Every structure is written in structure tokens, then in C-alpha cells.
Amino acid sequence: MTIKTLAVSRHMNAAKIGLVLITILGLFSYPYIPQKKLQIFPGPHVWWGAFTDGSPASKTTYTYKNESQSAIECVFGEAASFNMCGNSSVFANQGVATRDQLVSDLAFATKVSPSISLDLTGYSGVWIEIDYRGPANYIYLTLQNHEPTLDLPDPIRQFRPQSVGIKTSELHEPIFIRLDEFKVSDWWIKLFSLHRAESDTRINRIQALNIEVKEQPPLSRHYLEVKSITFIGERISKENFYLIFIIAFATLLGLEGAFRIYSLYKRHRAAQLSLDALNEHNQKLQSVAFKDELTQLLNRRAIREIVSKNIAIKTQQNLAIVIIDIDHFKRFNDTYGHALGDKVLASVAQLLKQVSRDFDHVARWGGEEFVIVTQDAPAENLLVYGEKLREKIAASPIFKEDISEPIFVTISVGIAQGRLGESFDAALERADQALYQSKQKGRNCCTISLANDV
């Protein structure tokens, strides 16, 4: 182990000890993290609007008792079997909507934009201070959550009422109510026959908090004044707080593991480099063994290796063989010499590569003969390919410095269409026979041996 490795290891151990101490401190400090607060009232983002049961027969009335309209006095009527009176704090920026819109019958429907609702999902409860004077034993708080996606027949009911009852005897001081104490009103669930999956408490689009009294004696008077509303919640949940330390430990251990792996890598790198160099040398030797030195095409050995490694003709009808022979090459070679003959072979090889496709394997088979292993196709397609090869060679002049006029050569082509169950050598023999037929026809042409030929 090197001095550098030992130093890094010491630093890692020191970091782990420090993280353990910080974690212990964090476990005891969590209860002292200040909670986040969202004060709604007093504040500029609440408009108040009183309401009654709305029945003309009940004659229940209300009167605002202060300038902000957060205090009302309700007088219940004489003839109501069910009566109610309360005040609604609508959460909205002033200027976004008019007061008439906010406190109208449609205030909790389409007139109020959902963009001015409150998302209270990060809060756990609400502190509320209420001054109540009257004979009621309970007052009721209701959070109205906007439900724009809920397909309800009555758009005015698109607000999920979630209520909790508070004993008036508790209201001598500010009271804390957990948000999970608010439950969806049974009448709202039954009215729209909601499935239990749609009847849960939701606080992601709160637009109003209602404070109300109901079912009170005729002619009774009730004074309701809301003095403050403040939502509170954890700045970070206990689970997420502890998760930070878990992630920190995991990160540190991961870094330590990565360092150990890197050290191991460094230790073996020299041997690996030697092995890579040896592999590269072997690949170069293999490349030389599989290439024709003159034309730089594949050689006979390479073609047989490709056929044996890929899906062979003897197992599936998916390969075709093309044999190409330069016409009168021996006579040409004897006339012009071997140097020009080599020039012709190299030029023809490059022209064959130009016409061939990515999936064609072009090789020099020996002498002036070339072989192409390609994908099997209909006979007409294979003939078109063969003709392209032939026409390309015939139309391409070959130049040499010591000869003033360009040289043109032609080729004869024999093609064997793939035959199911046939060996490579048998297919090669059929292609050679097709080549022989091309020569018998006068050369510079293509002949194909079909898969179903007898």
C-alpha cells in the first residue's frame, strides 16, 4: 500500500468518525428545528364573507361587526328545521377577483381561479384564535378544497367540504387543530355517491376556511370573531431528516469503496496494459492472416471463418455466393507483365468494394478470382447486384504511369442462390458452374444458379 493510499484511508476514517458525531447531534436536535409558518389572517390575502342556510323561511340574519368583516353576529330565525350561520375566509390575492365574485353563490366554483388556492400538503395543522359568544356547544370549521377534475353534476359542489367540530369551551385561548382531523362531510359523499377512493381528505387546493354554527335555537344570538389563522408544518419531515444522514453514510461508504476499487485497479493496471498490448498484437496478426496482401480484401480463410461463425447456408437458406473472374486475365498478364496485372487486381478489388454493401463480404479467392458472400435474395435482385458489379468494372478505366491509354477489363459473374441444407462448398461449386456458363456465353455477363434448380 502506497503512502498516498494510507493518507486517503486515514482521511476516510476521520470523515466516518465526524459523520457519526454529527448524526448523534442531529438525532437530538431534530425537535428543536423551528417549524415553518403560514399566517393567513391577519393578512392581505383573505376576504371574508358571511353566509346563512339561505332559506327565506328561516329568516336567519348576520351583521358584520368590524372593518375587516372577520367578526359577525348571527341571529337565528324562527321557523327553520335546519339552520346555520357563519363566516368564510376566502384565500385570494386582492385584485385577482372582486369581493362580489368571491362571496357569491359561485364563489367556490368557476369564478375563483384555482391559481389563487393554497397547497397545504406541507403543513400538519393550524393555529386559530376565535372569540365566540353564544349558547352553542360546538362550532364547525370547514376547509374547502377545489376539485376541478372531479366530474360532478353540480359545479357549485366542486369544493370538497372537510369539517371538524370544536367545543366552544376550548375557545378561551388559541387552539391547534391537526389537518388530519378534518374529515369529508358525509352529506357530500352521499349526495354524489362517491367511491371511497374519492372521499379522502385533500388539502392541495384549499380556497376557503369556513367557521360556522348550526342547528341553534330560534332567535338565539351568536358572536363569531376570527382573530388569527396560522398554518404550521415541519420544515423537513423526521423521515427525510434521518434520510439525509443515511444518504451521507451511504455516500461516504460508496466513496471509500470506489477508492478501494480504484486502488485495486491501479495495482493491476500494469499487468492489464501488458495483456492489452499482447491482445492487440494478436489481433494484428489475425488481421494479417485474414487479409489478402495485394488487394487488402478478405482472403479465402476469412470467408470460411465468416461462414462458420454466422448463420451458414447448410443450416438456413439465408446466404448467396457470388464468384467473379476477370476475363482473359492470364493473357493480359502475359502481355503487359505482372506489375500491371497486380495493378488490375487491386483496381478491380476496390471497384467491387465500392459497389458492395455493408453486409457483403468481398474476398480475393485466388489468382484473378473473387468471391462475395452476401444475403440471400430473390433471383432478380441477385442478378441486379451482379450486373452492377459487372457494369462498374467494365466502365472504369485503369491507369498506369508508363501506359498512355487507359486499360479496360471485364468480368464474368456466377451466382448461387441459397439452398436450404446445402453446405458452403456445395453452394460454392454451383456458383462456379454458373461462372463457367457465363464464360461459355462469351464472358462479360452474369449467370445464376437458382435454389430450386435440379
Q: How would you characterize the overall build of this protein?
A:
The protein has helices at 3-29, 99-103, 186-191, 238-289, 300-309, 329-336, 338-355, 379-394, 424-440; strands at 36-41, 46-52, 61-64, 71-75, 84-91, 125-133, 138-146, 159-167, 175-178, 183-184, 206-214, 221-233, 319-326, 361-366, 369-375, 398-400, 403-407, 411-416, 446-449. A hairpin with a 2-residue loop joins strand 14 (361-366) and strand 15. The model is unreliable at 102-114 and 312-317 (pLDDT under 50). It folds into three domains: 3-33 and 239-266; 37-235, Sandwich (Jelly Rolls); 300-449, Reverse transcriptase/Diguanylate cyclase domain (Alpha-Beta Plaits, 2-Layer Sandwich). With 454 residues, it is α+β, with helices and mostly antiparallel strands. The longest helix is centred in the middle third of the chain and has 52 residues, at 238-289. Strands 1, 3, 4, 6, 9 and 12 form a six-stranded antiparallel β-sheet that branches. It is built from nine helices and 19 strands. Helix 1 runs antiparallel to helix 4.
Tell me the layout of helices and strands.
Blueprint: H1 3-29, E1 36-41, E2 46-52, E3 61-64, E4 71-75, E5 84-91, H2 99-103, E6 125-133, E7 138-146, E8 159-167, E9 175-178, E10 183-184, H3 186-191, E11 206-214, E12 221-233, H4 238-289, H5 300-309, E13 319-326, H6 329-336, H7 338-355, E14 361-366, E15 369-375, H8 379-394, E16 398-400, E17 403-407, E18 411-416, H9 424-440, E19 446-449
Parallel strand pairs: 18-19
Antiparallel strand pairs: 1-12, 2-5, 3-4, 4-12, 5-11, 6-9, 6-12, 7-8, 7-11, 8-10, 13-15, 13-18, 14-15, 16-17
